[in-house]
Amino acid sequence: MSRLLIEASTPLCLLQDAGRFGVRHLGVTQGGALDWVSMAWANWLLGNALNAPVVEITLGGFTVKAEDYCLLALAGADLGAFIDERAISPGRSFVLQKGQRLRFTQPFSGARAYLAAPGGFDAPAVLGSCATVVREALGGVEGRGKALAEGGRLAYSGTGGALQELSQPALPTGGSLDVIVGAQIGRFSGQSLFDAFNTDWTLDSRADRMGMRLLGTPLQYQGPSLISEGIPLGAIQVPPDGQPIVLLNDRQTIGGYPRLGALTPLALARLAQCLPGETVRLAPVVQETAHRQHIEYLRRFQTAGRACTR
Amino acid sequence: MKPCIEVVAIDCLMVRLFEVIAEANMPWMLAATQQLRGAFGPALVDLVPSYTTLMVHYDLTALSPAEARQRIDRALADLQPQAQGSGQCHVLPVWYDLRVGPELGLLSQRSGLTVDEVIRRHSAHEYQVFALGFAPGFAFMGLVDEALATPRLSTPRKRVAAGSVGIAERQTAAYPVVSPGGWNLIGRTPAKLFDRERDGYSLMQPGDTVRFQAVDHAEFIRLGGDDAPLEAHA
Prior knowledge:
The structure holds 2 protein chains of 2 kinds.
Chain A: E1 2-8, E2 13-16, H1 36-44, E3 54-58, E4 62-66, E5 70-78, E6 81-83, E7 86-88, E8 92-96, E9 101-104, E10 109-116, E11 153-156, E12 164-165, E13 177-181, H2 190-198, E14 201-207, E15 211-215, E16 229-230, E17 235-237, E18 245-247, E19 254-255, E20 259-263, H3 265-271, E21 279-280, E22 282-285, H4 287-303, E23 307-308
Parallel strand pairs in A: 13-22
Antiparallel strand pairs in A: 1-4, 1-11, 2-3, 3-10, 4-9, 5-8, 5-10, 6-7, 6-9, 12-23, 13-20, 14-15, 14-21, 15-18, 16-19, 17-18, 17-20
Chain B: E1 4-9, E2 12-16, H1 26-40, E3 44-49, E4 53-58, H2 65-75, E5 89-94, H3 104-111, H4 115-124, E6 127-132, E7 139-142, E8 157-160, E9 164-168, E10 171-174, E11 179-181, E12 184-188, E13 209-214, H5 217-222
Parallel strand pairs in B: 5-13
Antiparallel strand pairs in B: 1-2, 2-4, 3-4, 6-7, 6-13, 7-10, 8-11, 9-10, 9-12
Helix pairs in contact in B: 1-2, 3-4
């Protein structure tokens, strides 16, 4: 077993995997890595299952010290990571010798970095997943929903192969965010539909793992009030103030606000790397097209070459 | 019964069965749930029931949107309501008391009924579990006697004790764990509503029925209840 001592952390540094499934009818939220693409690439670099447990580091402020020889991989945001005094960019696997420190300082590009270990970090599966949901006291290293904290330890038991580097940056960037339009779309005013897809939306600082609020021209819903129903990942709900909220992995399972539609998983991965104050555009897409693009993207994990770095 | 299927996400379809909340929906909802679980098998990721809808979240690497639609169509083609009593019936002991149910007085005032009559009416009905949400094991139940219907508090409490039993409009629920909450509190149950060690995790499942049974303070404590007044949790 190889171990890492956590020397610094924040409430935004969490053990995550793909999320908790099969229990949403009991009111249990999904959870899981917000940028699933970067989580998958971090795991891919080590030959892991793409959803093996990783550390989601949001904005930085995280330091670990190797208590043994450790092989690790990093993908996602550039959070100014250093191995001791040497800077390390994301998109590669690397060795941390016993006694060496890996430190994340501040965001240079993107918001969330994903740290993976061979076979995934050790954690009990709680209701089928180790995804940390603080509100529900589920998941994490101890299984009780605690964020990673100073003094705690991360461990893994797998063994790794050669060092790898991604041939292209894994961080999803650019373009507008694809929205699969929902059934209530026709209940918004014509002007609002135009505004939704043709104006800039600014990410509010009121953002967490439950949802991100978008600021812009208020959208007008003109339909009847709705009975609560299941909420999919990425749903864009519009409360009475007209400022949309994109519902993320830790959202409540049912709700009754009208919805424009839902972001695609690839759009969600991109959104997860945006910081408050950034602007985004939304673009409508039909379900079949989005599905095709998604399956195509997943194929990259099979076909991407593993370039040895040394 | 002609369910309507709506696209809600890349891998989710909403099956809309009804337009209004009614106890009579439940036999149909249960039948549809069973049919859909069977039709999707391992390709089902989650099936989220609510009052009038079932959200089908399927594995998008196993099924195309068209295939998922087909499975729903086929599963619901000859839907027959499930026989009554297919869900479990739970009896939840409740200590109805102003110390743990501060809105008992408000409900009495609004309805013009005595506190005892409020309690009697709340505990007289066998409620349907329409949906779980808000928190793990939080069951939305109804329908509450019209005389007891009361809107949510205008300012939600920051902390509501675990086991608190409340009313919002014509629904009733019990809080599984300490959490914020805006429901009108009328009592507290000692029952453990969500337990990760229990088979099925949640005491109440969608489609179950629930009856509340008034117990006195001594019985509440004997059953493991925590009678700490609300202020201690504020």
